[in-house]
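Lab manual, section 2.4: Encoding a predicted structure.

Procedure: take the sequence of the chain (102 residues), apply the prediction step described in section 2.3, and record the output as structure tokens. A sample record is shown.
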Amino acid sequence: MKTGYGLWIGLLVIAGLLALITTPYSYAGADQKNPGDIVMKACSACHDTGKVCNGLGKKNSEAWLKTIDRMVKKGAAVDKADIPLVVDYLEGLAPGSKPVCK
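Recorded output:
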């Protein structure tokens, strides 16, 4: 009887370890949205991204924030929580960067 009990415990331990090993890992940034995708989708819905391209390297974060706030008021589909992410993205792009600039 003892050996059967030990076998079951061993199988349960192995099953638990297999479950842990095969469970997909959750990385810190896995749920974070891609700011480039947000910019391309939201901005190109109403105008060519050339308007955004013209501001690269010229606008600081404050200027980008004003621009994004103005565009959101006009209907740009950018979630409020994503605005800081988009501002940082745009401020960090060099002039002529793709895919914003064609």
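Check your result against the sample. The radius of gyration is 24 Å.
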